[in-house]
Write a structure and sequence with these properties.
This protein is α/β, with parallel strands linked by helices. The chain has one domain (about 5-240): Rossmann fold, CATH 3.40.50.720. About 45% of the residues lie in helices and about 15% in strands. The protein has helices at about 15-25, 40-50, 65-80, 105-130, 150-175, 200-205, 220-230; strands at about 5-10, 30-35, 55-60, 85-90, 135-140, 180-185, 240. The longest helix has 29 residues, at about 105-130. The protein is globular, with a radius of gyration of 17 Å. Bound molecules: NADPH dihydro-nicotinamide-adenine-dinucleotide phosphate (NDP). NADPH dihydro-nicotinamide-adenine-dinucleotide phosphate (NDP) binds near residues 15, 16 and 92.
Length: about 250
């Protein structure tokens, strides 16, 4: 398959790594369907990509809604005829200590970070099976490999994504020719830290040494995603951990 004709859905495309990935894939001839809740951001990015000669569309989507995710997949097939790549990138990280009992934020993380990924897989699964090809790329995190004080719920969601993706690898690759890639970034400079409402978190992160890390740029992660996509069909990059060189955690 010529990757220049591929079609990718990217959730969480309105900022950070999702937006950087949408731009880079479009620059490389991949048609992108961008999804998130903030329409103004998606519209702006669509305009920017089209002005640069790329192919991009968007659909306002809440990944916690199965109906929205089904509609996203249908819209993509209607617009571009197929779905080759599903990038489940949308996520939130309202870190907090257990003692704060921010139970609503725990619920929200489970809904966005775990259910959102599962709904993304469910929305494209039948289509990929019918075509006997596809590529699912899920976002975990360093927090999906380790845990630190205040990261329990976030880490649990990202561990879940890692395990689910490994489970998909064991079933979907051999039986349905669907590639699965897990990407686990270290610290990346994005808006993600804006989801934190517990004001004791930032001093706690500094104690872990975060001030000394030169954070990655979202484009660094977009590059790794393009690399995984560009491999020949018989090669799957199953997992990538990408940290800033200066990150000790
Ligand atoms: P950003 O906050 O910049 O981007 C998060 C994206 O998720 C936004 O586009 C946001 O769009 C979208 N989103 C959030 N909730 C929903 C929802 N309910 N429905 C649809 N879209 C939603 O952060 P990042 O780029 O950093 O995050 C991307 C992924 O990378 C996340 O899964 C995150 O956990 C993971 N990650 C981030 C790291 C970092 O250091 N930044 C490190 C490791 C992993 P909108 O608000 O418009 O809906």
């Amino acid at each position: 398959m010529n990757h220049n004709q591929k079609v990718a859905i990217i959730t969480g495309a309105s900022s950070g790594m999702g937006a950087a990935t949408a731009k880079l894939l479009a620059q490389n001839g991949i048609k992108v369907m961008m999804a998130a809740r903030r329409e103004d951001r998606l519209q702006q990015l669509q305009d920017e990509i089209r002005a640069a000669g790329g192919e991009a569309s968007y659909k306002v989507t809440d990944v916690t809604s199965r109906t929205d995710m089904e509609a996203l997949a249908s819209e993509t097939i209607k617009t571009y005829g197929q779905i080759d790549i599903m990038i489940n990138n949308a996520g939130i990280m309202p870190l907090s200590f257990f003692s704060k009992l921010k139970v609503d934020e725990w619920d929200r993380m489970i809904d966005v970070n775990i259910k959102g990924v599962l709904y993304g897989v469910a929305a494209v699964y039948k289509h990929m099976v019918e075509r006997n090809e596809g590529h699912i790329i899920n976002f975990s995190s360093i927090a999906g490999h380790i845990i630190f004080p205040s990261s329990s719920i976030y880490s649990a969601t990202k561990h879940a994504v890692r395990i689910l993706t490994e489970g998909m690898r064991t079933e979907l690759g051999a039986d349905q020719n669907i590639r699965t890639t897990l990407i686990s970034p270290g610290a990346v400079e994005t808006e993600l830290y804006g989801t934190i409402t517990d004001d004791t978190i930032f001093p706690a992160l500094e104690k872990l040494g975060s001030a000394g890390w030169k954070q990655l740029d979202p484009s660094d992660i977009a590059n790794t995603i393009l690399f995984a996509i560009q491999q020949p069909a018989h090669v799957t990059i199953n997992e990538m951990i990408v940290r800033p060189t200066s990150q000790s955690l």
